[in-house]
Amino acid sequence: MVYVSTQVAMAELLLSGCTTSSDHLYIYPNGVRLDDSIEAARDIGMRFTASRGSMSVGQSEGGLPPDSLVENEDFILKDTQRVIETWHDPAHGAMVNVAVAPCSPFSVSQDLMRQSAMLARSLGVRLHTHLAENDHDLAYTREKFNCTPTQYAQDLGWLGPDVWHAHCVKLDDQGIRLFAATRTGVAHCPCSNMRLASGIAPVRNMLDAGVPVGLGVDGSASNDAAHLVNEARQALLLARVGRAMQPPEVRLGASGQRQTFFGCDLGPAQMTARDALSLATRGGARVLGRMDIGHLAVGMCADLALYDLNTLAFAGGAVNDPLGALLLCASPPAAYTIVNGRVIVRQGQLTTVDLGRLIERHNALAARLCSADSQ
After folding, report:
1. How far is residue 200's CA from residue 369's CA, in Å, rounded to a whole number?
2. How far apart are CA 240 and CA 303, in angstroms?
3. Distance CA 93, CA 300 (A)
4. Mean pLDDT of 298-309
């Protein structure tokens, strides 16, 4: 199930033009292995940062996950080290990286967070978790630890250029300053945040402060469409409407005259098409600590996405501003997706897997899983 669902998610991403993904797998009992995700990525041909997640504090101890889904912390650390030593490739152009990724502050202990950070840094890999996703996160951290999520992360050694946090919807001004000062990264997931009603992440403030921000589609539990260009479009639209909801600003003009600017006046500048594209490319590479991908230049990996603008959705728009049309018109599939010089999508079709058979197998496994849950 892990292998097949990984390939289904990656097929969606590749067909949208995404060449590199990260996945946070953290539900491990019943024989689940991160190795199956890594092998699925290898076989479909996608560049992959596999995050070895974990949950160790169950509901009986005040945590979020059911007790049946938690693991022993000693085993978590040993298996995480095994996966890193087996799969992580630190070389330029690597197709597989591994990150250490306790699920969240409310599903693991403080000790596991600290030890995970120590393990990652001793082995030279990155750290990842969820942080400040919604108001429940804020309330839990205040109640349990008497601090903000950012202060909690700082106390545990979870800030730095080798760390990225998912969501950060509720990151306050102090948190943004700490993230910027330590170059801690953020994975912005606008569709997930909207579907779960988590809120609107302060992405413009993060970018202005110098926080590394990349783009994530999140998983199918909170986003049913893994389309990277559409996610960038949603990031653009959400940032603009978020600004429109804020109070008006009064500014002094050149002649000293007061002028009132409403949110709808300032919203378009909150996120431009080029800002959104940057999140989806350079931003994601920076957050994952990759200096070899994210833009096109001599010496960089040959990761490219090509789109056919001679289609109905782009009619009249692409002739003037192709990039603006890509982000503002209906989000297109990729005509070609090339990963490390290998053509994975050709003329809109996957070249590495039989998509029809993959969907058929995925549906059968999903039906089996639903049937088991209902019994």
Report:
1. 33
2. 30
3. 8
4. 97
Q: Which amino acid is at 318?
A: A
Bigger pLDDT: 373 vs 309: 309
Q: Mean pLDDT over residues 361-369, rounded? A: 95
Q: Name the residue type at position 26.
A: Y
Per-residue pLDDT, 106: 84
Q: How far is CA 141 from CA 66, 69, 135, 148, 197, in A?
A: 19, 22, 10, 6, 20
Average pLDDT, the chain: 95
Contact 157, 196 (CB under 8 A): no
Q: CA-CA distance, 185 to 181, in Å (whole number)?
A: 11
Which amino acid is residue 67, in one-letter code? Answer: D
pLDDT digits (tens, 9 = 90+) for 162-191: 999 999 999 999 999 999 999 999 999 999
Q: What gap in Å lies between CA 323 and CA 328, rounded to an integer?
A: 9
Lowest mean pLDDT among 15-24, 62-71, 108-117, 233-242: 62-71
pTM of the model: 0.95
CA distances to 132, 172, 200, 241 from 195, rounded to whole Å, are 16, 22, 11, 15
φ, ψ of residue 77 to 5 degrees: the values are: -65, -40
pLDDT at 375 over 70: no
CB-based contacts of 38, cutoff 8 Å, min separation 6? 48, 50, 87, 96
Residue that the structure tokens 């990286």 belong to? 97
CA angle at 122 for the pair 120 and 124, rounded to the nearest 5°: 65
- How many C-beta neighbours within 10 Å does residue 116 have? 26
Strand partners, 359: none
Q: What CA–CA distance (Å, rounded) separates 110 from 132? A: 16
Q: What is the DSSP letter of 246?
A: S
pLDDT at 30 over 90: no
Cα diameter, the chain: 74
Q: How far is CA 300 from CA 290, 292, 293, 341, 347, in A?
A: 10, 5, 6, 11, 24
